[in-house]
Amino acid sequence: MLKNWVVVPTCLPLVRRRCHACASEHFRASGKFRVNANHKLIDAWLLVLCTACGETAKLTVLERMNVRSVRPELLDRLHDNDPVLTAELLQDPVVRRRNRIALDWDDAWRLDTGEPDHLDREVIDVSVRFAARIPVRAVRLVAEGCGLSRAGIERLITEGKLVSAVRLSGRLSGDFTFTLKR
């Protein structure tokens, strides 16, 4: 029987960026946008706040774009400070690359394993699905889901009792499956 696990975000991740005021490395998204139009051109930023000193920084969303080329729904969402748009933009690789930021997902996700009736079976097939692109060590996910230590999971991988089509030793942010043989 195939078990379905889901990695679910519990809150917005922290933004990794150096604060120019206090040299802290983490910002949190305020959920607010600043939009500035100059004649036919528009700029938009997502505002983030330093976790240490509260200093505001701007992450560029739109830069010197013609107003007519921006979808009206996007403009409405920017003006309404849409929290879903905030989450979408933080996960957008173009926005992250443009602003030279990374996301810190520590303590911002949980693993939903469903009902815990699978631990006594001889063979467990599990499909892990990510509700958002959250980079998590596969060993940590499996250990948390099965109630075992990470060292125990590493041992099971070495013994060939935990197998997957993907490499389980690094971070994953995409769906995968594995089989655990006891």
TrEMBL record:
A Pfam family matched in the record: DUF1062
Protein name: DUF1062 domain-containing protein
